[in-house]
What does this fold into?
Amino acid sequence: MTPIRPLLIYRVVALALLLAAGPAMAGRGGVQRELRREIRAGNVLPPREIEQRVLPTMPGIQYIGQEFDPVAMAYRLKFIHDGRVVFIDVDGRSGEVINHSQ
It folds into this structure.
């Protein structure tokens, strides 16, 4: 019986980790594809338009970025104010604020 070489074990473990991470890494790309499809179809407003509507209502608060939820068809804009994270949820179809949480 031949001993298992450490390099072979390393390669097998590395491959297993890459395969396990695949679905998680693909998830964000899938959301982006879905968002682009919905924007092209006219079902959802583009992220820049959402930001143009919301950011002026949040003066003096640091904007971090946004995420899109394709199930809810909503954007979540993230801010930092006085060391706390503030979330603004916006309907992706109408651009109306639907929730404001701290």
Q: What stands out?
A: The helical segments are 6-40, 47-54. The beta strands are 62-69, 74-81, 84-91, 97-101. Residues 6-40 form the longest helix (35 residues).
